[in-house]
């Protein structure tokens, strides 16, 4: 078994040796900001409610105000949250020229709040509301007041039903986002997966796509994933504890690297 220190060095070296690095992040990226993920044992949202029920487009259409009631707690937690050491480390890596962009399953906007650039949101975000009829997008505050009063949130333009601009179960992903992610992956020579159980498709295909395009794969996730055996480095620790160390080491290694 390799020690944690060895793995941290290995990942830092992979980053130094790669030219087109992309991060793929999941809900585990934001648990250290106080936002529960879906599948962590005991704390994951899945242990408390069935997300297929409370975040499915069919149950939302059937009873939006009841559904919004169950989403409000998660929504308020997200609004109050701040980026953590993991998000900030990715920004630092990007400023060092060692991160092209991030593709995320998260709906919390924390990468953008941490000032990371070039973020593809596969599942939208909850800082915006979208009209299900005219498709216009509004700030989320437009619907929060109506939802807090237990009302169905209605679009002021067309009276259609508003929903958070996040992808619900049963909805298709936006083809523009999928194309942007494919573009990011085109020259990718290292994909770093952070805090995803890699069971939600189509996002879980991206590590396979990256590998078949010739990229290396690194994973930082507390729990095991099905892709662990295909990865060059796997670290089963908390992102906020490991990623800052990796990024600091990259910085040292780049400074020491002789100029070509
Ligand atoms: N913050 C958010 O925006 C948020 C929160 C909950 C759910 N979601 C949505 O739910 C779906 C869940 O799929 P998923 O794969 O992203 O999440 P998931 O819950 O299926 O998996 C999260 C993984 O992260 C790991 N993890 C938790 N905390 C960690 C930490 N500090 N360091 C390292 N690993 C950690 C867990 O062991 C788990 O395997 C996504 O589609 C996403 O849109 C988003
Ligand atoms: Zn409308």
**Count of individual beta strands:** 9
List the strand order in the largest sheet.
Answer: 3-2-1-7-8-9
Characterize the largest beta sheet: strand count, sense, and whether it forms a barrel: 6 strands, parallel
Question: What structural class do helix, strand and pairing data support?
Answer: alpha/beta
- Helical coverage, percent range: 25-40%
Please tally the helical runs, counting DSSP H or I stretches of 4 or more residues.
Answer: 10
How much strand content do the residues show? 15-25%
**Overall residue-averaged pLDDT value:** 92
* Shape assignment: elongated
Supply Rg.
19 Å
Q: What distance lies between the first and last C-alpha atoms, to the nearest angstrom? A: 35 Å
Bound molecules: nicotinamide-adenine-dinucleotide, zinc ion
Low-confidence stretches: none
- Helix-strand pattern: HEHHHHEHEEEHEHEHEEH
Can you describe this structure?
By secondary structure, this protein is of the alpha/beta class. It contains ten helices and nine strands. It has helices at residues 4-17, 51-54, 57-62, 64-80, 85-95, 110-113, 141-148, 175-185, 206-212, 239-256, and strands spanning 21-25, 101-104, 119-121, 124-131, 137-139, 162-166, 190-194, 216-220, 233-235. Strands 3-2-1-7-8-9 form a six-stranded parallel β-sheet, with helices on both faces. It has a three-stranded antiparallel β-sheet with strand order 5-4-6, with helices on one face. A hairpin with a 5-residue loop joins strand 4 and strand 5. It is elongated and about 65 Å long. The model has no long low-confidence stretch (mean pLDDT 92). The chain binds nicotinamide-adenine-dinucleotide and zinc ion (ZN). Zinc ion (ZN) binds at residues 131, 133-134, 136, 155, 157-158, 160.
